[in-house]
Amino acid sequence: MMLSEFFELIQFLFVVTFTTFLVNCVEYDVLFANRAVNHTGQGQNPSERSKVTLPDAILPSQQCKQRIQENSWIIFLLIMAAIFWIYRLVKVFCNVLSYWEIRQFYIKALKIKMNELCNFTWQEVQDRLISLQREQQMCIHKKELTELDIYHRILRFKNYMVAMINKSLLPVHLQLPLLGNVVFLTQGLKYNFELILFWGPGSLFQNKWNLHPKYKRSGNRLELAQKLSRVILLIGLANLLLCPFILVWQVLYAFFSYTEVIRREPGSLGARRWSLFGRLYLRHFNELNHELHGRLGRGYKPTSKYMNSFTSPLLTVLAKNVAFFSGSVLAVLIALTVYDEDVLTVQHILTVITVLGVVITITR
C-alpha cells in the first residue's frame, strides 16, 4: 500500500515532466522530416548526412528552458501541478503513518507477522480481533465485539452509499433527449458525493464514524438542508474551475496508461465490465470489497451471456460490413508488407494498419 502511493507520486511527476518536455523541448519539424538536417563530418556517407537522429529533434537545454519561461500558460499549469503534488505528498505522509500503525497492530496485537499475512484469511484475522477484545477491552462501549460490529465500523460509509442508491436519493438518473433515462455515475461524481456527505468540510460526520448530533434533531432539518445546499454549490463551483485541469490530466493519464494496452490487446476495448452504479446497486449491506469482487466475478459469465442475448440486427449488419471493408484493406497492406518491407517506410502506413486493426476488433 505504501509502495503504491509512492509510485502514484512518481507517476504524477513523470507525466507532468514528460508532457512539458514533449510540448517545449522537441523540434517536430525535424522529427517529421519537414526540415532537412545536414550532418557535416569526415568519413560520413552522403546518405547519412541527411539522416535524422533522435538528438537532432531535441532542443538544447538552454533553449528548452527559455521556451518554458516564455510560456505563461505552462508556468501556471506547472504551479498548479506543484501545489497538487505537495498536497498529495502530505496526504501520502499521513497515510504512511496510518499504515505503520496498522502494521504494528498486526504484528504486536494480533501476533501476525508480515511474511505470514498472505496465508491468513479475513475470517482468521477477524477471529483474532474478537479474541483480543475479550483480553484487552480495546472498545470501551462494548464488552465483546461481534463480526457485525467490525463490518459496521469498516463499511459505515459504504452502507450509506448503498442505501442512497437503492432509495434513488442520489441524482444519478438523467433524462436526455432521444436517449431517455441515462444513469450517470463516474468516479469523479462518486468522489464528490463522498466529499459532501462523509469526510469533506461541512460534511454530516464529525469524524470517521460519528454523525453530528444536530443531524439527529428533526427541528434542524430546514437549516441543515440550506447549509448542505451552500456546500454543494461551493463544491460545484470548485469543480467548474478545476474542470480544465482535471480534463487535461485524465486525457494524459489515459493516453500514457492505455495506448500500449490497446495496441497489444485491442480486444480489451470490447470487454464488458460492471459499471460503478451496478456495483453499488448490486452490493449487499455489510459486504466487504473482496467479497463483492468475488461475487461479481462469479456472475460475470452468466451476465455476459444474458447481455449478449440483446442484439441489434441492424447494428450486426453494419458491423459485419465495416469489418469486411476494413479487413480487405488491411489484408492488402499486410500482403504488400510481406512482399516488400519497404512499404512500412511509406508515411502513415503503420498508423493505418493499427487503426484498421482496432476498427476490426471493435466491430467483431
TrEMBL record:
Task: Give the signal peptide as a residue range, or say none if absent.
Answer: none
Q: What is its main location?
A: membrane
Carries keyword Disulfide bond? no
Query: What sections of the protein cross the membrane?
Result: 6-26, 73-90, 231-256, 314-339, 345-363
Q: Which cellular compartments is it found in?
A: Preautophagosomal structure membrane
UniProt cross-references to Pfam families, sorted A to Z:
ATG9
Q: Which UniProt keywords apply?
A: Autophagy, Lipid transport, Membrane, Transmembrane, Transmembrane helix, Transport
**Membrane topology type:** Multi-pass membrane protein
Instruction: Tell me, in a sentence or two, what this protein's role is.
Output: Phospholipid scramblase involved in autophagy. Cycles between the preautophagosomal structure/phagophore assembly site (PAS) and the cytoplasmic vesicle pool and supplies membrane for the growing autophagosome. Lipid scramblase activity plays a key role in preautophagosomal structure/phagophore assembly by distributing the phospholipids that arrive through ATG2 from the cytoplasmic to the luminal leaflet of the bilayer, thereby driving autophagosomal membrane expansion.
- PANTHER family on file: APG9 AUTOPHAGY 9, AUTOPHAGY-RELATED PROTEIN 9B
Family classification: Belongs to the ATG9 family.
Q: What is this protein called?
A: Autophagy-related protein 9
Q: Which organism is it from?
A: Ameca splendens
Lineage per the UniProt record: Eukaryota, Metazoa, Chordata, Craniata, Vertebrata
